[in-house]
Each structure stands twice: as structure tokens, then as C-alpha cells.
Amino acid sequence: LPKKKKSGPDRDDRITIKIEKEMWKVINKQIRDHPEWGVRSVSEFIRRAISHELEEKASVTERKVLEIQLRPRLLRADSHCRDPEEPRC
Questions:
Q1: Are 27 and 45 in contact (CB under 8 A)?
Q2: For 39-85, what is each residue's pLDDT tens digit?
Q3: What is the Cα–Cα distance from 18 to 15, expressed in whole angstroms?
Q4: CB neighbours (10 Å) of residue 28?
Q5: 46-80 burial, b if ≥16 CB within 10 A, otherwise e?
Q6: Domain boundary assignment for the chain
Q7: Which of 8, 11, 31, 32 is deepest in the core (most CB within 10 A)?
């Protein structure tokens, strides 16, 4: 008989991902080399990396890009400035 899935507060909704051993070693070394990060495990590192990536993607989609077309200033006939490259113009 298949095991009955738990429900309620005791249910474990975590999933398992597999990473290559070499990747695990690199991440583990970075964790040991950088205690100032406050990361204690490879799984915590991966969770933070994924969370950071999702936040970054969300912030990019929230940004608005305004297209501003710049044109040389139109000079009035009585203007003393004739050269648009002149800093005073």
C-alpha cells in the first residue's frame, strides 16, 4: 500500500533537488571562505540564490522605461546663441 500523505501543520512541502558534486564542493568552499555572509549550509545558499534571482526578476519587470527623444534646441530669431554645441546654449 502506498503511504498516505500527511496533511496539516506536520506536512513537509519541501522538494529535493540534485546538484553535481563539484558544484556542491564549490558552494561549500565559498561558504567556508566567507563566514561574513552568514550562510550555514549549501541548501541555505541555494535558497537565498533562488530568492535573490526571483526578487531581481520581479524588480526588472516593475521598472518602467521612458523613451525621451532629445532634439537640438530650436533657436529664436533674437537669440544671441547660434551654436547649439556651446555650453551656454
A1: yes
A2: 999 999 999 999 999 998 888 777 767 777 777 766 566 556 666 56
A3: 10
A4: 13
A5: beeeeeeeeeeeeeeeeeeeeeeeeeeeeeeeeee
A6: 21-62
A7: 31
Which whole-number Å values give the CA distances from 73 to 46, 78, 86, 87, 88, in the listed order? 53, 14, 11, 12, 12
Query: Rounded distance, CA 48 to CA 41, Å?
Result: 11
Chain-centroid distance, C-alpha 58: 8
Report the alpha-carbon distance of residue 12 to residue 5 in Å, rounded. 9
Site of grid cell 500523505: 5
